[in-house]
C-alpha cells in the first residue's frame, strides 16, 4: 500500500519533540505534498514577536523584500489573519484580477515568480501564532480545493503540536537571563541551539551585523567572552 503523504506528514508532526523538529518535519515534507517550488513556515513567540522563519527555494533577500514591499499588500495574509483559514489566490481573485493585483505586480509574483500562492494559519489561544506559505512558478496549475483541505488538516495538527510543545516545562534558565532584552533572549536561545550568526539572522529576519552587535552587548552584560560561556551561564 502506498503511504498517504499528508497522513505521513501529520504523523511526523505529532512525533516532533521540539519546535525546531516541528519546523524541520514540516519543511521536509510539505513542499512535495503541494507540488510547490517555494514554501515557508514562520512562528511567533508568546509575546507576538516573529521568532522563527524557515524558507525553501527562495534567496535570503526574499525576507527583506517581502517585509518591505509585500506584507502590507498581501490579500492572502490578510484573509488568513481575519478568518484563521487557509486560502489560495483563486479564492479571492479571477486569474485576470490576480495578474493585476499589487501583490503579483509589486510584491512577490513577478519578482520571485510566485505564479500561484497559498497561505495557512497556525493558531493558539485564539491567536495566529504562525503562518505557512506555498508558491508555484509559471507554467504550473493553480492550487485547488483539495490543496486547501489538505492544508487545513496539516495546519490543525501543527497548531495542536505547537501548543503541546509550548506547554512543556522549559529547561532551567539562570536568573541573569532577565538582564537581557527580549530580542537578546531570543538570540541567546538560538546560540544555545548551535545556530550561526547567519542562521540566527535568517530566523529572526535581521542582518548578521545586527546579530553580531547584539552578541557583543550580551557578552558585555553577562561578562563572558565566548558562546560556550554564554550558554553555560544562562542555561543549566
How many angstroms does the end-to-end distance come to?
47 Å
The radius of gyration over CA amounts to 19 Å
Strand content: 5-15%
- The percent range for helix content is 55-70%
Largest sheet: 5 strands, antiparallel
Q: Spatial order of the strands in the main sheet?
A: 2-1-5-4-3
Fold-level CATH name of the largest domain? Beta-Lactamase
Q: How many domains make up the 3D coordinates?
A: 2
Which of globular, elongated, flat, extended, rod-shaped describes the shape?
globular
The overall pLDDT average reads 90
Instruction: Provide the structure class.
Output: alpha+beta
CATH class of the largest domain: Alpha Beta
Domain HTH luxR-type: 173-236
Protein name: LuxR C-terminal-related transcriptional regulator
Pfam family, one: GerE
Keywords: DNA-binding, Transcription, Transcription regulation
Description:
There is one protein chain. The protein folds into two domains: 5-167, GAF domain (Beta-Lactamase, 2-Layer Sandwich), CATH 3.30.450; 175-234, Arc Repressor Mutant, subunit A. Helix 10 (182-192) packs across helix 13 (227-234) and helix 11 crosses helix 12 (208-222). With 236 residues, it is α+β, with helices and mostly antiparallel strands. It is built from 13 helices and five strands. The mean pLDDT is 90. It has helices at 5-15, 19-33, 61-70, 75-83, 89-92, 95-100, 102-107, 109-112, 145-167, 182-192, 197-204, 208-222, 227-234, and strands at 38-44, 50-56, 87-88, 116-124, 127-136. Strand 4 and strand 5 form a beta hairpin. Strands 2-1-5-4-3 form a five-stranded antiparallel beta sheet, with helices on both faces. Keywords: DNA-binding, Transcription, Transcription regulation. GO terms for molecular function: DNA binding. It comes from Tumidithrix elongata BACA0141. InterPro entries: GAF-like_dom_sf, Sig_transdc_resp-reg_C-effctor, Tscrpt_reg_LuxR_C, WH-like_DNA-bd_sf. Residues 173-236 form the HTH luxR-type domain.
Amino acid at each position: 500500500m502506498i503511504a498517504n503523504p499528508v497522513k505521513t506528514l501529520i504523523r511526523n508532526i505529532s512525533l516532533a519533540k521540539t519546535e525546531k523538529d516541528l519546523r524541520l518535519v514540516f519543511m521536509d515534507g510539505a513542499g512535495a505534498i503541494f507540488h510547490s517550488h517555494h514554501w515557508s513556515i514562520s512562528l511567533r513567540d508568546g509575546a507576538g514577536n516573529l521568532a522563527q522563519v524557515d524558507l525553501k527555494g527562495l534567496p535570503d533577500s526574499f525576507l527583506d523584500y517581502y517585509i518591505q514591499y509585500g506584507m502590507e499588500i498581501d490579500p492572502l495574509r490578510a484573509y488568513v489573519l481575519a478568518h484563521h483559514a487557509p486560502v489560495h489566490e483563486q479564492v479571492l481573485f479571477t486569474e485576470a484580477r490576480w495578474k493585476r493585483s499589487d501583490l503579483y505586480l509589486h510584491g512577490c509574483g513577478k519578482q520571485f515568480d510566485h505564479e500561484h500562492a497559498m497561505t495557512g494559519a497556525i493558531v493558539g489561544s485564539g491567536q495566529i501564532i504562525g503562518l505557512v506559505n506555498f508558491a508555484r512558478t509559471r507554467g504550473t496549475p493553480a492550487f485547488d480545493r483539495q490543496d486547501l483541505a489538505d492544508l487545513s488538516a496539516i495546519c490543525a495538527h501543527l497548531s495542536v503540536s505547537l501548543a503541546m510543545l509550548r506547554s512543556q516545562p522549559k529547561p532551567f534558565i539562570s536568573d541573569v537571563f532577565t538582564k537581557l532584552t527580549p530580542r537578546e533572549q531570543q538570540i541567546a536561545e538560538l546560540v544555545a541551539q548551535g545556530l550561526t550568526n547567519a542562521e540566527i539572522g535568517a530566523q529572526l529576519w535581521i542582518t548578521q551585523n545586527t546579530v553580531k552587535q547584539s552578541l557583543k552587548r550580551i557578552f558585555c552584560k553577562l561578562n563572558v567572552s565566548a558562546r560556550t560561556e554564554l550558554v553555560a551561564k544562562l542555561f543549566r
